[in-house]
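Hi Prof. W.,

I finally got the PTH hydrolase prediction working! I wasn't sure whether to trim anything, so I left the full sequence exactly as given:
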Amino acid sequence: VAGLGNYGLRGTRHSVGMEVLDQLARQLAVAEGWRVDKRCCADVALATAHGLELVLLKPRRFMNLNGLSVASAAEIYNLGPRDIYLVHDDLDKALGKVAIKLGGSARGHNGVQSCISALQSSEMPRLRIGIGRP
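And this is what came out:
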């Protein structure tokens, strides 16, 4: 599960994907387990939920380069595009509205486009978090 955003710019609307992962880590009781993984240039926490092993990932790059971290982690953990869930902001959704998108185009989102390019696939399921337009 990759939370897209601009690392180091916490609290900004474009880093909501990382904020969601922080909350998920707290709910899965692994919030203290974040570690820097230099192999994929990301913060990583491992968790188990409903019998599934999860890799939580927060890229340590700017949004338009998030895909490099996601692709590196996919290789390290032997994951295919359909195994990777992207969590990201969506300007076209009202603040707080959530939607699931099963693959397809990036719809203008630079972080998603970066993942599509780096993984050479658009099959990643996505959790789109509405942030609304300014």
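DSSP finds three helices and seven strands in the chain. Does that look reasonable to you?

Thanks,
D.
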